[in-house]
User: Fold these one by one.
Assistant:
Number 1:
Amino acid sequence: MNTATHDLIVIGAGPGGYVAAIRAAQLGLNVACVESENALGGTCLRVGCIPSKALLESSARFAEARDTLSKHGVNVTGVSFDLAGMMRRKEDIVNGLTHGVAGLFKKNGITRYEGRGRITGPQRVVVEGTDGAALSAKHILIATGCASASLPNVEVDGLYVGTSTEALAYDAVPGHLAVIGAGYIGLELGSVWNRLGAKVTVLEYLDRILPGMDGELAAKARKIFEKQGMTFRVGCRVTGARKKGKGAVVEIDGAAPVTCDRVLLAVGRVPNTADLGLETVGIDTDSRGRIVVDERFRTSAEGVYAIGDVIPGPMLAHKAEDEGVACVENIVKGYGEVNYNAIPGIVYTHPEIASVGKTEEQLQQEGVPYRKGVFPYLANGRARCIGETEGFVKMLAHAETDRLLGVHILGAHAGDLIAEAAVAMEFDASSEDLARSCHAHPTLAEIVKEAALAVDERAIHI
Ligand code: NAD
C-alpha cells in the first residue's frame, strides 16, 4: 500500500472540503483530499444544489413558455419538452463543474486520493478504494457532509420510493408524486415535477411549510404554490411508504393512505459520520450524531477538525465553504471565523424565498424589540416590467438601535437580492444605512431600499 505524508488531509470533497483544500494550498500547506466518489464536488455538485437548479431552470422556462409568455405579447404554440434533453443538459452542467474542481485541485497542487477515508489513529488516515494508501498528516479535516434521513417504515427502493437523488433523475414525469416533507428539497423538487405536469401532493408533519423560515413568508409562499397547482397536507404524519404494484402507497397517521406513482422522501438529512474511525482518536458527537467542535472547528481529538454538515448549524453549502476557509486560516494564520448571524438561506422555487438573520417569530420569542418594514414587489417598476409582481421584502431592525436583525424576501430573484442584506448585516448596518444607499432605478433592489425606508414609515412608492 502507498504511504505518504501531508500537512493536511481533508476527508470529503464537497463544497466544504474542496474549498478548504484550495484555501489551505493557497496558504502553503501540502494538502491531500480523500473522496470516495469518482467526481469531486460532493452532494452539492453531483446530486444536490447544482442538478436541482439546472432542472428548476429548465422546468421554469418550459412553464413560462406555456403559461406566461403570451402576456408579453409573445405567442408560442405547441410548447413541449424533452425530458431526456433536460436531463442531458443537467448532466453536462454537473460534469463541467466537477471537472472544474479537478482542474482547481491540479492548479493548486492538491493530491487527490479516490477512495473512502478513515481515521486509524492520531495523524493517520487510511484510504480504501481505487487509490488505496496509508497517509499521515499533522492536521486532519473531516468534511464528509450528510445523507438523506430515513423515516421508520418508509421503504426506499430507489425507484418507486426514493430520495432527492432519484427525483433528480426520473426517466418520466410521474402521474402523481407524493412528497414527504415541505422543506427545501420537497418544495424545490416538487416544483420541478409540478411544472412538468405531475400532480404533486406534499405531506408535512408540522402545521406549516418551511419550518425555520419566517412564518409570514412561508404562509404567503404556500398560497402561491397552491395557485401553481401543488397540494399541501399539513399536520400530516407519515407512518410508512412502500412500493405497491406499479406505484406506491404512503400511510398517514389517522387518515386514509395516499396512492401515487412515486414517493420523494425529503424529511431532512443526517451527518455522515459512520465508519470514519472517530472512536480511534476519541472524537465526541452530540445526540444527533454531529461532531462537536469549538469556535475554531477543533474536535475533541488533537489535530482533527470538522466543518459543514457533519457539525451543528444549517446544512448549507456556503456555510460549509466559509467554515472550511475559516478552519484552515485558523490552522495556518491563527485566526478566521464565521458569522452565523449572517448566513443566508434560499429556496429556489418560483418565486424564490430568501432569508438572513432572525425571523419575526424568533425576535418575539427572544423578546427583542423590533421595527418592521415591508414593501411589495407589485409597487416596483422593474417587477412590473419583468412580470414578477408576487411577493415582498420584509426587513426587521432593532427598535432602539435600528441595527438590522433579519431580512426576508419572497419574490423573483430573492436569492440574489438577499446578498445585499447579508453584506449589510455582516457590517452591522442599520436599516437607515440601507435606506440612504443609492439603489439604481429601475431595479428589484429598490424593493430592498423601500423596505428599509418602510422600517421608518417613509417608503416612497406606497
Ligand atoms: P428540511 O429540514 O428542509 O425539511 C424537512 C421537512 O420534513 C420538515 O418540514 C419536517 O417537518 C418534515 N417532516 C419530518 N418528518 C416528517 C414526517 N414523518 N411526515 C411528514 N413530514 C415530515 O429537509 P430537506 O428538505 O430534506 O432538506 C435537507 C437539507 O438540505 C436542509 O437542511 C437544507 O438545508 C438542505 N438543502 C438546501 C437547499 C438550498 O439551499 N436551496 C436545497 C435543498 C436542500
Number 2:
Amino acid sequence: MRILIVEDEAPLREQLASYLKGDGFAVDCAADGEEGLYYGREYEYDVAVVDLGLPKIDGIEVISRLRAEEITFPVLVLTARGHWQDKVQGLEAGADDYLAKPFQMEELKARLNALIRRAAGYASPVLSQGELQLDTSKKEVRVDGRAVELTAYEYKVLEYLMLNPDRVVSKSELTDHLYEQDFDRDSNVIEVFVGRLRKKITPVNFIRTVRGQGYRFVTENG
Ligand code: CA
C-alpha cells in the first residue's frame, strides 16, 4: 500500500516514515502543504496522513483542494491535543478520520488499515473469498483453514489484489502501490511473485492473468 505523509515536524515525519516502512507500506513524505498537494495530485495513494498545521498551505486547505478535484483516497488528519474544532474542520474538509498528537504508532497503523479496507468495501479486517482468507491485522493468509507462508512481497501483492477485486490491475500499478520509488521496476519480478503466490494458495484460483494488461482478482460477484 502506498501512503503519503504530510508533516512539517521532521522528527515525527521520519519516525512515521520508518515505522510505516517497517510495516510494509511504500512511503512518500512531504514537509509542507504545497509539496503535499503536489504529491496528492500527482500520484495514486491508498491512504494519506495529513498534519493540519503546515507551512505554505495548511492541512485543511490541502484536503479541501484534493477533494474538490475528486481525489478520493482516505485521509487521516493529525490534530493538536485538545483542539476539537480542528477535528470537526478536518472531517468537514473531507478527511475520513483523525488522531490527536501525541499518539501511539500502533493506533495510527490500526486506523490506517481500517481506512484502507473500508475504502475497498470490507467491514472486517479478515478479507475472505471462498476458501481464501487474508487477515490484514495479523498479516496471515489461510487456505481452507491451513496457514500459508508468504514472503512480505507475495503478501503485499495478494492483499492489494484482494482490496481491488474484479478489475484489471496492471503490473505497473502493482509496482507503484507496493514498492519504494527506487525499486527495480522490472515487470518480470512481479510475474515471479504472482507465480509463486498462485502456487502457494493452490487450489484457490482467483488470480487470473489478463494477457497484455495485468491481473484480475475474480470474486463470485465479478
Ligand atoms: Ca505541524
